[in-house]
Amino acid sequence: MEGTYLYQTLHVRGRRPLWLDRHTELLARNIQELFGLRWAPDLRRLEAEIAALLDANRHPVAGSSFVRMAFTPAGDLLLIPGAVSFYDGYALRSLRPAAAVVNYGVPYPEYPTSAREAACMLALQAAVTADNRAAEADIERAAVRTGVQAVIRCDGEGFVHVCDEAPLFAVKGKKVYTPPAPPSVERELACRAVEAARLPLLELEIGREQLARFDEIFYVDHRGLTSLSACEGQLYAAIITERIARVLNKLY
Question: Which Gene3D superfamilies does this UniProt record tie to the protein (predicted)?
């Protein structure tokens, strides 16, 4: 799909889009603010269209799948089928990527757009290239490197914001921290899961140099939680993240 568009990615479990009302509410708000258009979908009809789309693409009825709602500046809504999940529901993914911190700019960073997503992909490609070159120049580093698979975006002042453009959380002891961020379904669910797990949750700016002080770092998107294994040489655990993930999967 070409051109810039706003989007929300739905987690569909057993043909039921989870938190569809909240996803459409956020998308409608973003459409109004960025495109100056009004959008008020019929949720029952939209849910039926999503189920028909997954049927047409032969997604299994059981388990989880993903569907993107893409809204163009011309006022068109497109439903784009995504992947079939290996998991049933929001889960802690078994893949634990290593991340690099990159200062890169994105257009309209407060909105989930295809342009913001493309900027993240370019930043990741640049980080992977830089990591490969550094490993080639350092044999000892090459022997122990994990390879960059995700990027944490930071700004010119050194504050981090998101990982792969998804809400970022950091754990120290039994306290969970998250930087200020625009509203999203995934961030709201993660915050609810942290509170339901009876863990203190604090919102504050996190500097790039502070990342090494945390015990765990994870981000949350439509798939669930992804725990980072490392970031710029610092290794992380996933004990509290697993606890939060267990609670998250019970919130719907």
Answer: 3.30.470.10, D-amino Acid Aminotransferase, subunit A, domain 2 (3.20.10.10)
pLDDT higher than threshold 50 for residue 137: yes
79/126 same-domain check: no
Tell me which of 36, 59, 85 is where a domain ends: 85
Asked if residue 231 lies in contact with residue 211, where contact means CB atoms within 8 angstroms, the answer is: yes
Q: Which two tokens stand for residue 85?
A: 């999940």
Is the whole-model pTM more than 0.70? yes
Q: Could you report the per-residue pLDDT of 53-66, keeping only the tens digit for each? A: 999 999 999 999 99
Q: Alpha carbon 208 to chain centroid distance? A: 19
Distance CA 75, CA 67 (A): 19
Beta pairing class for 64-71 and 77-84: antiparallel
138 and 205 together in one domain: yes
Amino acid at 81: P
Residue 44 inside a domain? The answer is: yes
Range of the domain at 63: 6-85
Summary mean pLDDT of the chain: 93
CATH number of domain containing 13: 3.30.470.10
139 pLDDT above the threshold of 60: no
The Cα diameter of the chain in Å comes to: 59
